[in-house]
Design brief:
Structural class of chain A: mainly alpha
Number of domains of chain A: 2
Order of helices and strands of chain A: HHHHHHHHHHH
Number of strands of chain A: 0
Strand content of chain A: under 5%
Shape of chain A: elongated
Radius of gyration of chain A: 21 Å
CATH superfamily of the largest domain in chain A: Tetracycline Repressor, domain 2
Oligomer: homodimer
Low-confidence stretches of chain A: none
Number of helices of chain A: 11
Distance between the termini of chain A: 74 Å
DNA sequence: AATTAGATATACATAATGTATAGTCAATCC
DNA sequence: GGATTGACTATACATTATGTATATCTAATT
C-alpha cells in the first residue's frame, strides 16, 4: 500500500529557511575564502549550523549548492533591469546600458569570481553557467540585429556579437579590474563595444 | 664527517630523460583528459612508467609539475618569434604579428586550456602563470608607447594596454574559438586591437 | 496516537595530495 | 674491486574531500 503523503506548510517553510541559511553561508564562505580550493561542504555546513548531510538533502551535491548560490546572486544582481534596457529606442544606448548592468553584476558579489573558478573543476557546473550566460548572448544578438545595416553580412554580425559577448564576460571584467574602479571598467568596456560596432555600418572591408 | 658528493653525467642524463618523459606524459594526460579534475599524479606516473614518488622527487608537487609542463609548452610554442615582431619598424604591424603569435600559441597545445583551469584551484600556480603573462603585457606596453601620439595621456595609454592585454589573453581566445578557426579568431582579435588604438591618436574625447 | 518530512549521528567507500622510511641497483670514487 | 652515492622503488601512513548508506530523533500532520 502506498504511504500517504502530505504537504506541510510549517515544515516546508522551515526547510526553505534552512536552505536559504545554507546558501547564505555558502556565498559568505566563497566571498571570504581566498580560493575555491578551500570551499568544502563541511565548512559551509558548520557556518550554516547544519550537518553536511543536510546540505546533500537540500542540494544533492556540491554542484547543486554552487548552482543555487549563483542563482541566488543572479536574483539580486540587478539583471532584471535588462528588460528595460532592451526596450530602449536607441540600440546603442541600450548596449551601453547593458554593459553597465553587467559590470554592476560582476562586481556586486565577489563570490561570482569563485563560482567562475569552480567552472574549471566541474564541467557540468561550467555547462550550467554557460547556459545562464546564453541569455546575455541573445541580448547582444538582438541589439546587433537592430544596429546592423542591411549590408552587414551574417559573419560580420556574428563577429560583432561574439566580440561584445567576450568583452562583457566575467573574465574580461576581472582582467580589466586591476587598478580600476567599477565605473572605469564600465566606460572602458563601453568604448570597446562601440568600437566593435564599426564594421556593421562601414562597408569598407 | 661530510659525505662526499659527486656529479654523475650518466645519472643526471637519465634523470633528465625521466623528467622529460614525465612532462610528456603529463601534457598528454592534460590534452586527452576532459577536465583538470581528472588530472592526478597517479595517472601521470603510470603513463610515464614511473612511480608517483618519482614525480615528487622531480617536481616537488603537483604545482611544480604543472609549471614544468607550461614552461615546456612555452619553450616550443613559438614565443621566441616575439623578438622579431617587436623589432619591426611599424608598431601596428608588430601588434598584428603579436596577435598572430599568441593565437598560434594558445591554439598549439590544448593542454594550455587545462593549465588555465588549474589556475582556479591553485592560487600560487595562478600567480606563476600571471607572472609569465607579464611578458606579454610589457610587449604590449612597449608597442603602445611607440604608437601613442604626444597628446595621449597616461590613462589613455593604460586603457589601451589593458584592453589589448585582455583581447590577447587566453580566456578571450577561448571564448572566440567557438565556431571559428585559429586564423579567423586571429583576424577578429587583430581588428579589435586596431580599434582599441583609436583613442591614442584621435584626441576627440 | 500513528505517521511523516526534515534533520541528525555515525559509519563507510573512494580518491587525491603529500610525507616518511626502508630498500634496490647501477654509476662513481678511491 | 669494494665502499659509497644518487635516482628510483615499495610500502605505509596521515589528511582532506566527496558522496552513499543506515538508523535515529523530533516536531508537524493526519
Amino acid at each position: 500500500m502506498p504511504p500517504r503523503s502530505y504537504v506541510s506548510p510549517a515544515r516546508s517553510a522551515a526547510a526553505a529557511e534552512t536552505r536559504e541559511r545554507v546558501i547564505e553561508a555558502a556565498s559568505r564562505t566563497l566571498r571570504e575564502g581566498e580560493s575555491i580550493a578551500r570551499f568544502s561542504l563541511d565548512t559551509v555546513a558548520k557556518a550554516a549550523g547544519v550537518t553536511r548531510l543536510t546540505v546533500y538533502n537540500q542540494f544533492g551535491s556540491r554542484r547543486g549548492l554552487l548552482e543555487a548560490v549563483f542563482d541566488e546572486i543572479a536574483r539580486h544582481g540587478g539583471l532584471h533591469q535588462l528588460a528595460d534596457a532592451m526596450a530602449m529606442a536607441d540600440p546603442r544606448a541600450a548596449l551601453d546600458r547593458m554593459v553597465e548592468i553587467f559590470c554592476a553584476f560582476w562586481s556586486r558579489d565577489s563570490a561570482v569570481a569563485r563560482l567562475h573558478d569552480a567552472m574549471a573543476t566541474d564541467p557540468e557546473f561550467a555547462e550550467a553557467l554557460r547556459e545562464r550566460n546564453e541569455r546575455r548572448r541573445r541580448g547582444v544578438t538582438a541589439l546587433i540585429d537592430r544596429i546592423a545595416g542591411k549590408g552587414a553580412s551574417p559573419q560580420t554580425r556574428k563577429d560583432a556579437v561574439d566580440l561584445i559577448f567576450a568583452l562583457t564576460s566575467y573574465p574580461t571584467f576581472a582582467l580589466l579590474s586591476t587598478g580600476r574602479s567599477r565605473d572605469e571598467v564600465c566606460r572602458l568596456v563601453q568604448a570597446a563595444c562601440r568600437a566593435a560596432l564599426a564594421p556593421l555600418i562601414n562597408p569598407s572591408s
